[in-house]
Amino acid sequence: MTGIFQKGMFWVAGLAAASLAATIMSLRDKPPVEGEDPPEGFVKRLSIAALLALATIIAGACVAAIRSPAWSAPLFFVGFGGILALTARNRRLRHASPVLRRIVDLADATLTAILIAGVLMLANALAFSYGERPFDLTSEGAFTLSSQSESAVRSLKRPLKFTIVLASANAGARAGQLLELYKRINPKNVSIESIERYSAKDRLKFDDLKKLVPDVATTQGGGVVIEFGEGKAIERVVVRDAELFERSDPSASAPSVNESTFRGEDVITSAILRLERGKRRNIGFVVGHGESALESMDPRLEGLGLFRSRLEVTGFQVASLSLLTEDVPAEFPLLVVAGPKKPFATIEVNRLRQFMLRGGRLIVIISGTPRAGLDEFLAEYNIAVDPRIVIDPRMNLMSNMNWVVVQTPGDVKHPIVSALTNAYAAFPIPGPIRLLGAEAEAGRAPRDPNRPETPGNPRFKPLAILQTSRFARSTENLNAARNDPNAFQSGPFAVVAAVSETKDPGESGKAPEPDPRMVVISSAYFPDNLTIIQSGETNLDLLSNSVNWLRGESELVGIAPKTHVSRLIVGDSVFKNRLVAVPTILSLAVIVCAGIFTYLSRRE
Amino acid sequence: MRHIPALLKRELAAYFLSPMAYLVLIGFQIIAWLNFWQLVQLLSDPRSAFTSSGLRDPLNSYIADSPGFWIAVLVAIPALTMRIFAEERRSGTIETLLTLPVTETEVVIAKWAGGVIVYLILLMTFVVYLPFLVIYGKYPIDSGPMISVGLGLVTLGMMFVSIGVLFSAATRNQIVAAISTFVVLFLLLLMTSIAYQQFEAAGNTRVAEALRHFSVIAQLHQCGQGLLDIRYLVLHLSVTALALFVTVKIVELGRDA
C-alpha cells in the first residue's frame, strides 16, 4: 500500500508541477493588442492551463480523501492559485477585441466554474474526512453506541480485531453493523474481518482460526472472535450469535410480532473491558468422578465445552481441580460439581466443607442416581436430592419422558430465573430435590412422608426456584415401576434450588441481605453440550445466572439491549390484494381525472 | 429573484398542460404498484423475520434496494428535463424569454425548481401507499428512517434534476440532452456501486470507502436504515449548486451569442 501510495504521489506531484508550468507559460503570453486577434496558441495554452489546474484540484481532493487534507494543501494551492491568476489576467484583456472579449467571457465562465467546483470539492473532502458521525434517527438507537462503549473503545491502546464468523453469506449483518460503530470510534486500533465458515473460499482461513481459537468451533450459527493485543500477549474470546440475541417466540395473542433483543453491545463491550483489564476470575470444576470433559465441544459426545466457553466469554478462567490431591486453592471463590458419575471420597467431602466454611460458593449438578456421596454435605445446607428418577409424560423433549422440560421463570421470583421469560430448560434424567428444615415444615417444599427430616444449619435457607409440572412422577426404579403404577410418586418436584445464608442483624437491628451460597441442579447432564443445544441455550443462561447470583455481580456492564420488533402483515390474499389495489386505483384515478380536467380546461 | 415565482408557474404550466407529465405519472404509478405489491409479499412471509433486511429495513426493500424504483428514476428524470431548455431553443421561445427583464439566474433556478417539483410529485406515487400500509395493514413504520429517506430522496432529486437541466441547456437537441443525462445518472447509480464493491472485494478499504461515499444507492440505503449522513446532503447540494452555476454560465454565453 505504501509503495502504491508513493507511486501515486509521484504522479500527483508531476501533475501539480505541470499545472504550475502551464499556468506560468499562459501568464507569460504576450497580451493581444487592441483591435487584433489574440496570438496563435493563446487560447490553447489558456485551456491547457485551466484543465491542468482543475485536474490538480481533483487530485488534491482524492489525496485529501485517501490520505489527509494536510497532504492535499500544496495541490489545492497550485490548482486554485493558477485559476485565480488566469482569471485575474483575462479580465484585463476582455476589451482588447470583440473576439477576445468572447474568448475571455468563455474563459472567465470556465475558470469561475472550476473555482467553484474546487471549493465544493474541498468542502466535500473535508466533510468526508472529518464528518463521520451520521445522525441515528431509528427509534431503537440501532446505530448509536452507549457512552460506556465509546469510552471503552476510544481508550484502547492495543489493537483490537473482530472476526465475524458467518454461518451464511447473508448472516451477521446486525453484528457487523455494531462492530462498524466500534471501528468508527477508533479506526486506528480496531479492525474487522469476516469469514464464511462453510464457504470454500474461506475454508483455510477458518481452519487457521480454529487452530488459534478452538472455541470457534461452537459458532455453528455464527459469532464473533475478539482478539486483543498483539504478538504473544494476544488474548482471544469467542462470542456466539446466540449470546448476542434474545429472540422471543411469537405469543398466542400476537402471532405476527417477532421481537428480537440485541444484547450485542453489552456482551462485546463487557468482553472488551475485561480483556483490557486483563483480570479474570477463577472458577474451578471438580474432577475425578467421571465428569464430562471441559474441553469437549462436540455435541455428539459428552462434554462441558459450551458451558466452559460461556464462562470464558464472561471473564472467567476455568480450571479443573481434584480434591483428592489438594485443598481448594484460595484464588478459587467458586466451584462447580458438574455431573459426577462416581461418589466423592470422604476427604473430598471434607475439603468441600472447608471450602464452604471459609465463604466459598458452590454449584452442585447431580442426579438422584448414581449417588454422588454428597447427601450428608448437602443436608448441612438443608438440601436433599432423593435417589429417584423423575419423568414427565406431558412436559418432555421429543416424547422422551426422561428428558423433563420445565418452563421458566416458574412461579418463584428469583434472580436466577426471573430474566428467562418464555423459555424452556431441559433436565435429562432428573432427581427430585427436597428442602429440609424450616422450609419443609412451613409447607413451602414438597415433602416425602417416607423420608425423615434431618434439618441442617437453620441459617441456610433453601428455596425451590424451578419445579416440574404437576404431571411429573418419580420412582426409585423405572423398570420395576412400569408394571406397578403405585411405585410412582406424583409431582411437582423441585429440580433447581438456591441456598442463601442469613446473617445476624447488625447494630441497626435490620437484617442484611442473605448471602448466596449454593445452587443445586438435580440433573447430572444438565450442563452437557447436547442438552444445551436441545434446550436452545436456556440451560446455559440458567447456569450463567447461577454463577452471577452466587458471585453477587453481573458479568455484563449493563448496557441496555436494543429491542427490534419485526412485524408481519396478517391477512388472507383478499386482504393483501385490497391493500395493494385500493391506493393504486385511487392514485390512478386522481392522475387521470387531473389530466382530463386539464384537457377540458385548455379546450375551453 | 422576484421573478422566480412567475417563471416557476410558467414552467409548471408547461409540464402539466402537456400529456407527457401524466404519462410519466401513470408509468411511475405502475412501477410503484409493483414495488408495493412485492413489499406486501415480503412483509407477510414469516421467513422474512430471519433475514437481515426485509422486516428489518422495509423502506430499503421498498425503495433503495428496488431495481424498479431506480429504473423509473433513470428514465423519468431525463424525460422530464430534456425539454427544459432544448425545447425552448428549438422552438425559438428562448430568445423571447431572455429579452424579458429577468436574469439568467432567475430563469435557470425557476426551470430547475419546476423540475424538482414534478420529481416530488412523481415520488408521491410511492408515498401514497405508506398510509394504507400503516393504517389499513396495521404495520407501523419507524418515523426516523422515513424522515432520513425522505430527505435523501429530495436532495438526490435536486441533484439529478440539476444535471438534467445542465445537459438540456448545453444542447439544442432534446434526445441528446436526455441521453447525456441518462448516461451520467447511470454512472452515478451503477458504476460507483460496482467500483466500490470491486475495491472492497480486493481489500482496498480506503478507496472502497471513498467510492461508497459517491454511490447513490449506498447513500440512499443508509438513509433507509435511519442514518442521516449530512455529508451526503452536502454532496448532493454541492453538485446541484455547481450544475446550476454552469447552466447559468451556458445560458449567459448563449444570450451574448
What order do the helices and strands come in, and which of them pair?
The complex is a heterodimer of chains A (604) and B (257).
Chain A: H1 2-27, H2 42-66, H3 69-93, H4 98-130, E1 135-136, H5 147-154, E2 160-166, H6 173-185, E3 190-196, H7 203-212, E4 223-228, E5 235-240, H8 241-244, E6 245-248, E7 257-262, H9 264-277, E8 281-286, H10 305-313, E9 316-321, E10 334-338, H11 346-357, E11 361-365, H12 375-379, E12 383-385, E13 389-391, E14 396-397, E15 400-408, E16 423-428, E17 433-435, H13 438-441, E18 460-467, E19 473-475, H14 478-481, E20 489-490, E21 494-501, E22 515-521, H15 529-535, H16 538-551, E23 562-567, H17 573-603
Parallel strand pairs in A: 2-3, 8-9, 8-10, 10-11, 11-22
Antiparallel strand pairs in A: 2-4, 4-5, 6-7, 7-23, 12-17, 13-19, 14-15, 15-16, 18-21, 19-20, 21-22
Helix pairs in contact in A: 1-2, 1-3, 2-3, 2-4, 3-4, 5-9
Chain B: H1 4-16, H2 19-43, H3 58-64, H4 67-81, H5 83-91, H6 93-99, H7 104-127, H8 129-135, H9 143-170, H10 174-201, H11 205-214, H12 216-225, E1 227-228, H13 230-256
Helix pairs in contact in B: 1-7, 2-3, 2-4, 2-7, 3-12, 4-9, 4-10, 5-9, 7-9, 7-13, 9-10, 9-12, 9-13, 10-11
